[in-house]
Write a structure and sequence with these properties.
heterodimer; A: alpha/beta; Glutaredoxin; Rossmann fold; Ubiquitin-like (UB roll); 4 domains; 5-stranded mixed β-sheet; 24 helices; globular; B: alpha+beta; 4-stranded mixed β-sheet; elongated
Chain lengths: 544, 193
């Protein structure tokens, strides 16, 4: 395919759009509040009113403000209607056609929307995720075209290095350097792997990207494949995400049909295929060496590094593994350039980060903000604070590998270094807000139970250590703990952190450590031998 | 805990004269999956998914047949299969109801959902109703924390659930689980990848 043909597809798609478009969210959150029935009703209403030439109803991906669903956004006015139900359909169609209705709308200046800066989610809620033409009309695959026809692989790697993009899976390794490492390896076969095994409790950014804009991932991976010299890509996606799996399957099929994947892409010598690999319910497979073992058909257990996947990955060949959100940044980064990208964010953390807001917060949903935005802005301004007027006690970031950040640290900017400095991590982007009713020992125990369940059992520190830590936390929570138990907990935290084989065990102590650091009094109140304020503590052993 | 050697297998090794891995299934593996990977062993997980998709679970005999077809030892196939929680090595119900038990859902009272199913169907977590229709499990984060609490029934996600909504859903499930599909997926069946 040549550029004019690509433009032709885009033009045809744009020309087929009616002057007024009602984009209704059919992503997960809105669907459950009945958006499909509303969509049907809107379509019927348009037909009955004889407005089919003028008004069009389109199902789109996530419109982000999940707590206000079902959401409908009207073009060209951009009005966002909230909590639309079937009875309002007629009024809404009337309203976009010059009438009035009493439907609730979201103020475009609402901080939740106004502070967003979209790169990864730029198409989310705008395009139809099930049609490649819709992605092409949003300049999709144009970046890939220019890369294959006008740039050398080295130029692409340099662009990514220059952009300052860092891995969005949590650890924050510079993406460009990783690409450069794989690119310089001499090998007849190399692989690109997209880690879509999103499993952190509280994280749902990757799922949303896969469901709302699947072609973005394919394009990002194809660009990576060209840059490092690979011809085969795999997307390792969780079995628990059936909608994402189906959207990806459809997207791969469409891309192959139009020649964006397969042999001689855009009439260039470059061949690239992507296959989907479905996981089978093992959290540890999100760890890169475990993920590769799983693709090879073995138990998903990690192995020591080095050698790193860049040197010896799948079947011993150089392999590039990046997270969904990292690949999702690539098409836009390539289209707009490294300078544009590196102007966003902080000195060491460039670009944006997508966070999934959940827990006791008014506006749950997805937000994408420039790196360096403060937690306070995210939680209090955008998230609207704790629901029903409560106060924030802590924010959990980074899931079972992250920590609990207390309310007085909310002015911390979100970037890799700042979050690490206060005992948490950027992680994949889950953010669970907790109010005063949450017991922090419970939170630590919850995450320890998770790590205990998900430990693969290969190394002793993680296998036995997580069990012991879980038992100690349970003992303390049930009011049977002593000061000595806290000391033992601390000792085990050190042990796991320093001696576990992979990231799962090394970071498993983080939730415990951070709650011990900031909420130690909650632990001490529960001890049998504690003397908080010279009083016997109120623990179950004393009250019964 | 993947490392605990609990007996997740059907204790009765029933043998069947007709193979589980039929020629048609072999053709799918050979034509669709072999070209994707440099080794046959890499096809083990997709093969197990395929068996489970076809028979709802993975009988021991099927495991042996898959091992033979992929030219690996049966013990290796068993070793891999027991590691992953999603593989059912003993029969499960036609409908697998998975209530998310992760933190965001827990904060939003997911325990009430599990209790509802427990009471309504008279089964504990991990058990199957005697008529073989329902199995109840708890799942790790389903990635819909913004609309917690949620549950996954076969391949359909239900969000913002209440005990009442869940009861209604259970009552309304069609007799044939193949008729129960995600309404959000619009492409036709024969158009699959």
């Amino acid at each position: 395919m040549e550029l004019p043909e690509l433009h032709q597809i885009a033009e045809k798609e744009r020309a087929s759009q009616k002057p007024i478009r009602l984009r209704i969210c059919v992503a997960a959150g809105c669907q459950s509040s009945g958006s499909l029935a509303v969509k049907k009703k809107l379509e019927d209403t348009v037909k009955e009113a004889g407005l089919s030439d003028k008004v069009q109803v389109v199902g789109v991906g996530c419109l982000k403000m999940c707590s206000q669903g079902p959401l409908v956004q009207a073009d060209p006015t951009q009005t966002l209607y909230a909590k639309v139900d079937e009875t309002q359909a007629a009024g809404l169609v009337g309203a976009v056609n010059g009438g009035h209705c009493h439907c609730a709308t979201v103020d475009p200046n609402d901080p939740f929307l106004a502070h967003q800066f979209s790169i990864v989610l730029e198409n989310s809620g705008l395009i139809d995720p099930e049609r490649i033409e819709s992605y092409i009309a949003a300049e999709g695959y144009e970046g890939l075209y220019h890369v294959l026809r006008e740039k050398t692989p080295t130029e692409i790697v340099e662009t990514v290095i220059k952009s300052g993009l860092r891995g969005r899976g949590g650890a924050g390794y510079p993406t460009g350097l990783k690409w450069a490492l794989v690119a310089k390896m001499q090998s007849p076969r190399k692989f690109v792997v997209c880690n879509a095994d999103e499993g952190d409790p509280g994280a749902f950014m990757d799922r949303s990207v896969l469901e709302s804009d699947p072609h973005r991932i394919l394009e990002g991976m194809a660009i990576a494949g060209y840059a490092i010299g690979a011809t085969q890509g795999y997307i390792y996606v969780r079995g628990e995400y059936p909608l994402a799996i189906k959207r990806l399957q459809g997207a791969i099929r469409q891309a192959k049909r139009l020649g964006m994947l397969g042999g001689h892409i855009f009439e260039s010598p470059f061949d690239f295929n992507i296959d989907l690999r479905i996981g089978a319910g093992a959290f540890v497979c999100g760890e890169e060496t475990a993920l590769m073992a799983s693709i090879e058909g073995r138990r998903g257990q990690p192995r020591p590094r080095p050698p790193f996947p860049a040197e010896s990955g799948l079947w011993g060949q150089p392999t590039l593994i990046n997270n969904v959100e990292t690949f999702a940044n690539i098409p836009t980064l390539i289209r707009k350039g490294a300078d544009w990208f590196s102007a966003i964010g902080t000195e060491k953390s460039k670009g944006t980060k997508v966070f999934a807001l959940a827990g006791k917060i008014t506006n749950t949903g997805l937000i994408e903000v420039p790196m360096g935005t403060t937690l306070r802005r995210i939680v209090e301004e955008m998230g609207g604070g704790v629901e029903n007027g409560g106060t924030v006690k802590a924010v959990q970031t980074g899931g079972p590998s992250g920590g609990c950040i207390p309310a007085d640290k909310l002015d911390t900017p979100v970037d890799y270094e700042s979050l690490a400095a206060i005992g948490s991590i950027m992680g994949s982007g889950g953010m669970i807000v907790m109010d005063q009713s949450t017991n922090m020992v419970d939170v630590a125990r919850f995450f320890m139970e998770f790590c205990m369940d998900e430990s693969c059992g290969k190394c002793a520190p993680c296998r036995a250590g997580t069990v012991q830590m879980y038992r100690l936390l349970s003992k303390i929570r049930e009011g049977r703990g002593t000061q000595q138990d806290i000391d033992m907990l601390n000792g085990l935290c050190d042990l796991l952190r320093n001696t576990s084989l992979c990231g799962l065990g090394q970071t498993a102590p983080n939730p415990t450590l951070s709650t011990l650091r900031y909420f130690r009094h909650e632990y001490e109140q529960l001890l049998t031998d504690s003397t908080v304020n010279g009083q016997l503590p109120k623990h179950p052993a004393n009250t019964t | 805990m993947a490392w605990i050697a609990e007996n997740r297998r059907d204790p009765q090794v029933k043998t069947s004269d007709t193979p589980y891995l039929t020629d048609a299934l072999k053709a799918v593996l050979r034509d669709r999956y072999f070209p994707r990977y440099p080794t046959k062993r890499a096809v083990l997980l997709p093969a197990l998914h395929l068996i489970q998709h076809t028979y709802d679970w993975i009988p021991t005999q099927a495991l042996q047949e898959v091992a033979e077809f992929l030219e690996i030892a049966p013990a290796e196939a068993l070793d891999t299969a027991t590691f992953y929680e999603e593989y059912w090595l003993k029969p499960k119900g036609k409908y697998l109801i998975g209530v998310c038990r992760s933190l965001a859902c827990e904060l939003c009272q997911s325990a009430k959902l599990t209790d509802t199913v427990r009471r309504k169907l008279g089964i504990e977590v991990g058990q199957t109703t005697t008529d073989g229709r329902f199995t109840l499990i708890e799942m790790e984060c389903l990635g819909s924390c913004g609309s917690a609490p949620v549950a996954l029934t076969n391949e359909v996600l239900q969000e913002n659930l209440t005990p009442e909504k869940l009861e209604k859903l259970i009552d309304s499930l069609p007799a044939d689980p193949h008729d129960f599909k995600d309404p959000g997926i619009t492409w036709p069946e024969d158009d699959k990848h």
